[in-house]
Amino acid sequence: MVSGETLLSRNIRQAGVEARYDAACKKLLSHKIILAWIMKSCLDEYKHLDVLQIAANYIEGVPQVAEIGVHPDETNHQDSAADANIYGTNTESITQTEGTVTYDIRFLASTPQSDGVNRLILNVEAQNDFYPGYPIVKRGIYYCSRMISAQYGMEFGEGEYGKLQKVYSIWICMNPPKKRENSIIHYSVQENTVTGQSYEKKENYDLLTTVMICLGESEETGDDKTGILRLLNVLLSSTIKAEEKKRILEQEYAIAMTRELESEVLGMCNLSKGVLERGKREGIINNTVTSIQNLMETLKLTMEQAMDALKVPEADREMYKAML
How many CA atoms, within 13 angstroms, populate the side-chain half-sphere of residue 235? Predict the structure, then answer.
């Protein structure tokens, strides 16, 4: 800790570390070989293919990280600015009434059963908070809906709905509740025939799927010993050291450690320490608030007296007063 540093300045510094960790996480996940593992493990269209084949032949262009808009005002505007194609697509959005919201990662992939004309539009999100105040799966479905509607004027025009491309929004949840750990669940459009017979081709209604990948402890992944759950658990772990991560990625997943990828793995490990420090600090703050409240209630002390008894530093007292 820097000498004379206040709680506010520490929080600002640690928030900066957390932002850099978030950016590093997105960059790491955007490598084609990592996306190929996710696609092979979670999407039916790629299950029969080798990951190297997926990375080399089916992911189009360069996956875009935190660049394309989610909300209506910006998605197509930004796509047009990028030469009007979503062959690598746009990731951010600013509306006049809402702040900027970006897709973490968005990219196009051709489907192996096609001649290269049909494509999927994919979005991958790294989600640290499983309870942000709303169900994450609803946000995933919203992102799918936006990727569907944003195709108007880009992939199809008036009366050309047959050109709509299927979309996936894949959410990697790093801190799910225990009951959701090490699971992969799809939410998609299903046909339900109430009466009569069905004649509709699946490709005409199977247009959006939200995938929830909930991580857990890497050694508790059940049958997924060398699958996507273990890969992501290892890759995004805040406790596994860089050398061990490199060994697992190379030996178990045949992921070549390029200089760029090796540098990003090392950077993630270093930034993880800052995120853990922030978590510990928040735990200390919450415990101190509880202790102040207990002293005030049980011993009938004033707030100042309670902080005196706990030896709370003068630099931190205004913050605790505001919290209380």
Answer: 33
Is the pLDDT reported for residue 14 higher than 50?
A: no
Q: What is the largest CA-CA distance in the chain?
A: 77
Chain segment 117-175, per-residue pLDDT in tens: 578 999 999 888 888 889 999 999 999 999 998 888 878 788 888 889 999 999 999 88
The C-alpha atoms of residue 318 and residue 304 are separated, in whole angstroms, by: 11
CB atoms within 10 A of CB 150: 25
Pure H helices in the chain: 7-29, 32-42, 51-57, 75-81, 136-149, 228-235, 242-253, 259-298, 303-309, 314-323
CA–CA separation, 272 and 195 (whole Å) = 55
DSSP assignment of 154-188, as one string?
TTB-TT-GGGPPEEEEEEEESS--GGGSSEEEEEE
Quick one: average pLDDT of 187-216?
92
Tokens 């968005």 appear where?
Answer: 106
CA distance 131 to 139: 12
| Cβ(167)–Cβ(207) below 8 Å | yes
What's the pLDDT tens digit per position in 266-307? 776 665 544 445 445 556 777 788 888 888 888 888 888 888
More confident residue, 175 or 319: 175
pLDDT, residue 216, reads 87
Nearest residue to 239 via CA among 261, 269, 263: 269
- Between the alpha carbon of residue 146 and those of residues 40, 102, 172, the distances in Å are 24, 12, 19
Answer for the pair 273, 13: CB distance below 8 angstroms, yes or no.
no
- Other Cβ atoms less than 10 A from the Cβ of 162: the count is 7
41-62 burial, b at 16+ Cβ within 10 Å, e below that, comes to: bbbebbeebebeebbeebbbee
Cβ neighbour number for residue 14 with a 10 Å cutoff: 17
pLDDT of residue 189: 93
